[in-house]
Inverse folding.
């Protein structure tokens, strides 16, 4: 989607405001304002700030138009059920549905690198943009199924601050809106299991009733990916809705985690272990470039972080980043230097710029060596020298950050942040190892400027194999309804 902000500029003229006035009143950064000036997409959070400052609605400050060069409608495949995918990410769930014989006709996400990954590996039928700003009329008709893992940060049991007030918790309403407008035969929604307990079950009950109000029979079940052949213990809530009948099928377990489960069902296979999934990579040295093995096989993105120590060097004193920012900005202005000039002096691309900003908590404090160099450059006094440059050795606080991956059993949940430490204790799990644990194909390539962006895409994804097994169940129900 393309965005046009002509309405915003006209509104500023009517209110006799400048761009600087808007930046200050809405509390948005100059870099964000520059993005708007370039007609680039900004987050819903930024738009909300602008609308609150100007006392207007989103449709009064911008227009969204379809970008014909961005979206490429797929050629219809006869005999295949059609799917619209929301909150698609890198495409884990979509790929599972494709492997089960479905065709994705339209997909959407607001994570640029994930969009690039999706296009590189799956297809050009995905649209970049904030779903809250995309009109249903810009989404193709004819979908048999709508799927989506609406954002879970606000719901997650790992988020102790989760609440009904978290705006991300209401993005499910966008899925609800599109289901209402497009009327698919079925839908599949995936989320963290913490959704069931949030606000003592009130959130889930609200969501379930909202979907039922559209005429769908709705069921929800927690599935552990390890019990379906994925080498990872990953429990997720899978919500399925059917508009045509009461039939809802979930996949049968294929693997056991405990002896008790095996005794109950001797037909089950042992859960796939981490060693079985990634053991063949253990002795291959990590590097950014593709690796060609002796047998001609190419290994992609076998790159990993090496921060595995249980201690680190941290500041002895608590330092307020906002205070340091104001202090450095004052001295930078005295020196007559721009942030770009400071970056160029240090040979950084963007790092120095974060020393002079505090919006959205995106600022940072220079490390000691940079502080002393900055002091030479700007000539500031000794006010914060001791607080900023005195370091002591500290233990890592979060035990999970030091967890060593399982080897003779399925991996723990692959998250969107730093992965677990490899069994060799020399590094973290590599991008490729995490992707294999999430059952992505070996040649699935992730886009991104850095390794953290790739880890995030993988950790946010639905395991491909689990998605495929869910999709196979959806197909059985659709086939049954078609025959009847």
């Amino acid at each position: 989607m393309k965005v046009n902000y002509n309405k915003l500029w006209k509104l500023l003229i009517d209110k006799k405001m400048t761009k600087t006035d808007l930046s200050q009143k809405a509390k948005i950064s100059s870099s964000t304002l520059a993005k708007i000036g370039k007609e680039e997409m900004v987050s819903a959070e930024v738009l909300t700030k602008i609308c609150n400052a100007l006392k207007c609605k989103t449709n009064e400050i911008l227009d969204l138009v379809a970008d014909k060069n961005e979206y490429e409608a797929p050629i219809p495949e006869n005999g295949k059920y059609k799917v619209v995918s929301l909150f698609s990410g890198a495409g884990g769930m979509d790929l599972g549905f494709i492997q089960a014989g479905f065709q994705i006709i339209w997909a959407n996400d607001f994570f640029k690198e994930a969009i690039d990954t999706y296009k590189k590996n799956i297809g050009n039928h995905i649209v970049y943009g904030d779903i809250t700003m995309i009109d249903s009329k810009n989404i193709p008709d004819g979908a048999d199924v709508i799927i989506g893992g609406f954002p879970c940060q606000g719901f997650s049991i790992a988020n102790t601050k989760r609440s009904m007030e978290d705006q991300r918790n209401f993005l499910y309403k966008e899925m609800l809106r599109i289901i209402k407008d497009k009327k698919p035969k079925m839908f599949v929604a995936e989320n963290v299991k913490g959704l069931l307990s949030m606000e003592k079950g009130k959130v889930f009950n609200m969501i379930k009733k909202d979907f039922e109000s559209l005429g769908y029979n709705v069921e929800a079940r927690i599935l552990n990916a390890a019990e379906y052949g994925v080498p990872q213990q990953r429990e997720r809530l899978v919500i399925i809705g059917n508009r045509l009948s009461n039939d809802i099928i979930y996949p049968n377990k294929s693997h056991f985690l405990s002896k008790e489960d095996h005794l109950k069902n001797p037909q089950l296979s042992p859960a796939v272990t981490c060693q079985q999934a990634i053991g063949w990579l253990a002795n291959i040295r990590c590097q950014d470039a593709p690796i060609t093995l002796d047998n001609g096989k190419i290994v992609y993105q076998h790159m990993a972080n090496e921060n595995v120590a249980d201690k680190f060097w941290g500041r002895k004193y608590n330092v307020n980043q906002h205070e340091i920012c104001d202090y450095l900005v004052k001295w930078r202005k005295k020196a007559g230097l721009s942030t770009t000039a400071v970056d160029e002096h240090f040979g950084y691309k963007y790092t120095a710029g974060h020393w002079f900003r505090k919006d959205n908590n995106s600022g940072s404090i220079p490390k000691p060596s940079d502080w002393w160099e900055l002091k030479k450059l700007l000539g500031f006094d000794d006010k914060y020298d001791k607080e900023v440059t005195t370091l002591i050795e500290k233990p890592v606080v979060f035990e999970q950050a030091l967890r060593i991956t399982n080897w003779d059993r399925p991996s723990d949940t692959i998250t969107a942040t730093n992965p677990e430490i490899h069994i060799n204790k020399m590094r973290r799990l590599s991008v490729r190892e995490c992707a294999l644990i999430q059952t992505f194909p070996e040649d699935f390539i992730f886009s991104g400027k850095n390794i953290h962006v790739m880890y995030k895409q993988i950790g946010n994804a639905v395991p491909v194999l689990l998605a495929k097994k869910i999709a196979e169940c959806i197909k059985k129900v659709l086939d049954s309804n078609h025959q009847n």
User: Anything to note?
Assistant: The longest helix spans residues 464-483. Residues 322 and 358 are 6 Å apart (CA to CA).
